[in-house]
Amino acid sequence: MAVSQRRGRRIMMTDAERDAFLTAQRTCRVATVSSDGMPHVAALWFVWDGSSLWLYSLTRSLRWSQLRHDRRAAVVVDDGVEYGELRGVELSGEVDFVGELPRTGLDCAELNEPERLFASKYFGMDTLPHDGRHGWLRLTPRTVTSWDFRKLP
What we know:
By secondary structure, the chain is α+β, with helices and mostly antiparallel strands.
């Protein structure tokens, strides 16, 4: 066990590497759990602000419904094809629902930066168009695990 822990520390991303990776990647997989304990995993776009992962989700999705009953979530962002290229970050904790639901664009200072980042990353725009079907989830992770197999000898 100690060998894998040492190896884990060797391939762990630094904070700067993790931030750059999460900023560059476009799709994450969000895991939630139903009231009867069944897991659900779905892909979603996101932005990282350096301390929280911001998820823009349909408010009528299974994910949203499950998070309303149990706010715990795990998110994986990963990349790579060949074994030696694999890298990723797993974040877990409880989500917070931020802003009006669904989001229509009412003033919410807390969403200014996530919406600016999201609009730029996914739409090449300065402001996010609101469709009245999505809402914001903020995951400020309780635990973060990262790996970068490119660091292996």
